[in-house]
Every structure is written in C-alpha cells, then in structure tokens.
UniProtKB/TrEMBL annotation:
Enzyme class: oxidoreductase
Any Pfam family hit: Ldh_1_C
CDD domains in UniProt: LDH-like_MDH
Gene that this sequence comes from: mdh
Organism superkingdom: Bacteria
Organism whose genome encodes this protein: Pyxidicoccus parkwayensis
Reaction equations catalysed: (S)-malate + NAD(+) = oxaloacetate + NADH + H(+)
Keywords: NAD, Oxidoreductase, Tricarboxylic acid cycle
Full protein name: Malate dehydrogenase
A molecular-function term among this protein's GO annotations: L-malate dehydrogenase (NAD+) activity
Length: 314
C-alpha cells in the first residue's frame, strides 16, 4: 500500500553534516537514504554509505544508504536536505559565503526542480535565509514545501546554555529563537521558561545577556574551535527533527525559516518563525505577540536578512 512504502530521504552534500544526517536517518529508521555529492566527492559518499550500511548490520536497521553522484538516484525523494556548499572559516561571516554558495545552490535547485519537484526541501546552507529564498525561486517549489533549518538549531543552543547555567535538565527548558540565522537573531527571553517558571526569575540579567550573546555567536564559536569547518552534529539533528515531523505528520511546532506573507510585518522573505510542520510541509506560520523591544530586535534581524537577500542575483 502506498502509505506503507518506505520513505526516501535525499541528502544533497556528503560532507560532515551529510554524513551525520545519513547516520541519524538510519538510526531513526526514517527511510532509505540517498547521499548525493558531485563526482569529485564520489569516494566520500560511497564510503560513508558503505560504512553506515555496515553499522546497520550491528544494530539491525532495515533502512539503507546509497552514495551517488547521479541526480537520477535522488528522484522521488520525500524529503531533501541540502547541506551542499562551503562552510565559513574563522573570521568570516555567513554572508561572506553568499557568492560561492549561491552558485552551488543554483545548480542544486535546478536539479531539484527536474528530479524531485514534490519533495519537502530543507536548506542548511549559508547564508541560510538568503539560500532558502534562492532555492524557492529557482526550484519553483510551493511555499509550504521549502524551509530553512536554523531556528531549531539556534533554539537548541539557547536551551543548552540555559540548562548548563542552571544545572537543570534540558528537557524542562522551553525557549524560542526568532529571526534570521545571523548575529541579530532574537532569543525570546520573555517567552522562555524552565519547568514553567520564567527565565527572568531564574537567571540574573547579566548572565542572561551573556547567554543571549553566546547563542547569537553559537555558530562562530564552533567555527573558531573546528578551524576548518562549522558545526555538524546539532545542525544535522535539527534538520532531522524537521524531516521527521514532515514524514510522520507529527505537526510539531518548530522555529524555521519560512516564507512570511505579512506575519511580523514581513512579506516575501524567508525568516525564522515558529511553524507547524506536518504532512503538508509548513502547514502554518505562527505569530508570537511581541513587545516594543522585541519588535525592534526582530526588525534589526530582518534588515540584515533583507540586505543579503536583496543582493541575491538569480
Ligand atoms: C551554525 O550556526 O553552526 C551554522 O550556520 C554554521 C556557521 O557558519 O555558523
């Protein structure tokens, strides 16, 4: 029966995030995975596929990974996660990657249009909000079938730092980061709680400010540590959370870069907001009520995204 067929997950980019995505998808048994990269990286994708399939035998996973350099193998994917592109190096901003990653995205988006136009497509490549904008336009994907992974990652970092600060279980931290995936992102302190208690009652302002700063610079902190690349474990887990919600119609409410059409006073740009992800892709964009200061912070974040997006030449 069609609804019982194994799902197919296309991973575009066989680097560190791609490898972790493949592993997580198999361990969670989300479906069969196709790990694609360009011919120069054939050994890398074929090697990762073989290695993970051998791991599957240890734990008895039934899903398989195929490493490929042929877009035809990606055809029919239910979900596609794009990590293709160049990571930044210490001292670089995500925006510094615009030209090089846009070139790569143009090719990826054209191939998605040709081979997998019905997939739910999640973009991880940076500068994230601009890349998802270009992807949407070039691949001509319906607005509900394309989103950027960032809010899940940024929110996860925020929650992690809060739990570390308090020495409490991360399971009890509820938080939300809105806005673009840049240094102006907006951790919503007023809306964040631990076990239902507002953060502001638990953490002194100077410590909270430090956590906000660390969250905003969370990607750069890892770039500085890794020196030759950027984060890969948490971005993979964040993308998989979105994919899983789509594949199994979980209808989770997750922050993601979605096309805004008037929400938050923004129209025609992909920007981080809480969205409901289910079998219909981005089924709903949820508007959070903001006070004056939060609105000003969000506007600053939007202006940064807008500047980059407006410079994109398709
Ligand atoms: C991240 O936040 O980890 C990614 O956007 C990668 C980067 O360059 O920071």
């Amino acid at each position: 029966m069609a609804q019982n067929r194994k799902k197919k997950i296309g991973l575009i980019g066989g680097g560190q995030i791609g490898g972790n995505l493949a592993l997580l998808a198999i361990q969670k048994q989300l479906g069969d995975v196709v790990l694609y990269d360009i011919p120069a990286a054939e050994g890398m994708v074929k090697g990762k596929a073989l290695d993970i399939n051998q791991l599957s035998a240890v734990d008895g996973y039934s899903c398989r990974v195929t490493g490929t350099t042929d877009w035809k193998d990606v055809a029919g994917s239910d979900v596609i996660i794009i990590t293709a592109g160049v990571p930044r190096k210490p001292g670089m901003s995500r925006e510094d990657l615009l030209d090089i990653n846009l070139k790569i995205m143009k090719d990826v988006a054209a191939n998605i249009k040709q081979h997998a136009p019905n997939a739910f497509v999640i973009n991880v490549a940076n500068p994230l909000d601009a890349m998802v904008f270009a992807l949407h336009k070039i691949a001509e994907l319906p607005k509900n079938m394309v989103a950027g992974m960032a809010g899940v990652l940024d929110t996860s970092r925020f929650k992690c730092f809060v739990a570390e600060e308090l020495g409490c279980s991360i399971r009890d931290v509820e938080a939300l980061v809105l806005g673009g995936h840049g240094d102006d992102m907006v951790p919503l302190v007023r809306h964040s709680t631990v076990g239902g208690v507002p953060l502001t009652q638990l953490i002194a302002k100077d410590r909270l400010d430090a956590i906000i700063k660390r969250t905003r610079e969370g990607g750069a902190e890892l770039v500085a540590l890794y020196k030759t690349g950027s984060a890969y474990f948490a971005p993979a887990a964040s993308s998989i959370a979105m994919a899983e919600s789509f594949l199994f119609d979980r209808k989770r409410v997750l922050p993601a870069a979605a096309l805004l059409e008037g929400q938050y006073g923004i129209n025609g740009y992909f920007f981080g907001a809480p969205v409901q992800i289910g079998a219909g892709g981005v089924e709903k964009v949820i508007t959070v009520e903001l006070d004056g200061d939060e609105k000003a912070q969000l506007e600053k974040s939007f202006q940064s995204v807008k500047k980059t997006v407006d410079s994109v030449k398709l």
